[in-house]
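Changelog note: in this version the structure field was regenerated for every chain. One regenerated record is shown below for reference.
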Amino acid sequence: MGHGTKVVKRLQQNSLTTADITAVSMANTAPAMSFFFSFATIAAAAGIASPLAIVVAAIVILLKINSLVEFTRVTPSTGSYISYIGKTFGPVAGVMAAWALSFGFIVAVGFVIAVLGGWTSLILQQFLHVTVAWQFFSILFVLVVGYLVYRGVKISTKWAAAMFAFELLLILVSMAAIIVTHWHHLSFSSFNPHYIKNGLAGMGLAFPLAVFLFIGVGNPGAMVEETQNPRRAVPVAIYTATLLVTVIYVLMAWTTSVAFHNNAQAIASQSVPFVVAASKALGPFTLLVYLAGLTSTFASLIGATNAQARMIFSAGREGLLPFELGRVSRYGTPVSAIILYLGVALTITLIWAHHGSPLTIAGVIATLGTIPVALVYLVLNLAVPVYYLRECRSQFSWLRHLVIPIAGTLALILPLWGLIEPGQPAPFNEFPWIVLGLLMVAWAYALWRLRHIPDLADRVGSIIADE
């Protein structure tokens, strides 16, 4: 391919089954961790009927996933969003997508790293009365995860799946305990639209956070190169995972509401209401719900690193980012991309640590990382009709390739606006300007890259996963 990369550097093909990537997709969302730290705010905005906000968010995510799936069916690429945008709108757009997504993913995974360290420290303090700095655990877990994903996609995926299975079991046990404890207070008011706080305004307020619950569910789209029959397996896995995670979230929201006797104000007053409810119900077995959060975060870090480092790797392999990032280890893993991804994320998280407790700074980190990622999602929706009309006209479907992508674009505008609207408190008011500055630098880099690599347009998305 020129520039010292005559041989295409491949990942290990046919390593993963549909079941493997379905588990990874679900682990990526980290149901316990995501729900623990988001639901109080969702309930404060939408009231007792917050499960309905989660269902609406799931529908929007399914609209977004449609775009990813439709590209995967015809031109599966490890670069995923980056390659698809680049193939549609050209190499400059591809480079900008690579920068935006790499920055967004690396910053956002700081949320996971901070929570992993903070939650472990909290468990030791609460149950063993031992105080250890959370930074120590964050560094330790990053090293462990880094080693696992370096050693091979099959090994790390098995770990993520096992951790997710354990997490799901603990969540189910916790919910069962809550239902048994509050049997006489069972109510289904949570599913009544009449109880949505402030109507559409309340739903709009809860919507961006509810969407955040599903961030990462489509990440296995970057693992197509290592998946058996990726054009079919990846779409099946991502859709299945989204629907199953939606059911989990809705049940968690309902049982939390039951535990607090449908008092949205009481739920909103707690930082982690599900943990409070489960702790009371589990009694001496309270540790179980805390372990659910720990295994959830650990599995999420494995899943996120596996998928997101591969997108960075692919961008390096194709020349959108420095070629060094396209290096493959002897285990067939994207070693340079893994080191960059985890190393920079950990560094940013530890620097940010001076601004408060890990569980507080995690949400701030996540917000900054989500803005460029949401922008890329939006552009991907716009890319679908353009690509299909130009490259796959015979397969063009008005519903799947025009109506649904447009609906997905419109649906993403609300949560994106919620992240960038003026008048937010510091440091949130600075985030849109940081992202704008990033995009300007990415644009300048793209023009420079194009001058030095004349065939960059031909490289973008040129390595098809199953060829």
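Spot check on this record: The two ends are 16 Å apart (CA to CA). The chain has one domain: 18-459.
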